[in-house]
């Protein structure tokens, strides 16, 4: 009776996991991209900015101490968008005659840093996909070894010990896999949130430049 119950539990745990389409197969065009959101590896400035051209200052912002200090604060998600708006307004008020150039430089820095951060996150999402595939493979391997032992009526003591070990191992493998899957929605939202942040900051900067 115990053996029968254990087999049923095992079948439920593994069957649900392995029969359902995994979240990381969401995109048929890019097997390493698990998100419903479209993959955009690099932002285009024109999508989030309609101000002066960034090219003349895209590499200069780090050389300006005030701008180099402000940019990380604006990029950081620890800074609320409301606080970012105030930081932009305060800096613009102190920029004087060079306001147009300096505020363009600020957005050039913000755009550059957000693009780098987004690219890092996108690569991390792709690594997440590969790791989830590996975990799913490990589950299948454990299940393949455990299955015959679970249905064998006359297990030796060594086989019983191994079956118990494999059952515990399978539970942990399934739990880890599912925990990671449950975090996928948040992970996939991060590049979108960063894109929205770039747009919001760009809009605020353009507002104070007018």
How many discrete domains? 1
DSSP strand tally: 0
Which overall shape is indicated by the principal axes computed on the Cα atoms?
A: rod-shaped
Structural class: mainly alpha
* Average pLDDT score: 86
The amount of helix comes to over 70%
Description:
This protein has helices at 2-19, 45-48, 65-75, 81-94, 99-151, 157-182, 184-209. The chain is mostly helical and 210 residues long. It has one domain (2-209). α5 (99-151) packs antiparallel against α6 (157-182). The protein is rod-shaped and about 90 Å long.
Short description:
The chain is built from 7 helices and no strands.
Question: What is the element layout, followed by pairings?
Answer:
Elements: H1 2-19, H2 45-48, H3 65-75, H4 81-94, H5 99-151, H6 157-182, H7 184-209
List the main descriptive attributes of the protein structure presented here.
210 residues, 0% strand, single chain, 7 helices, mainly alpha, disordered N terminus
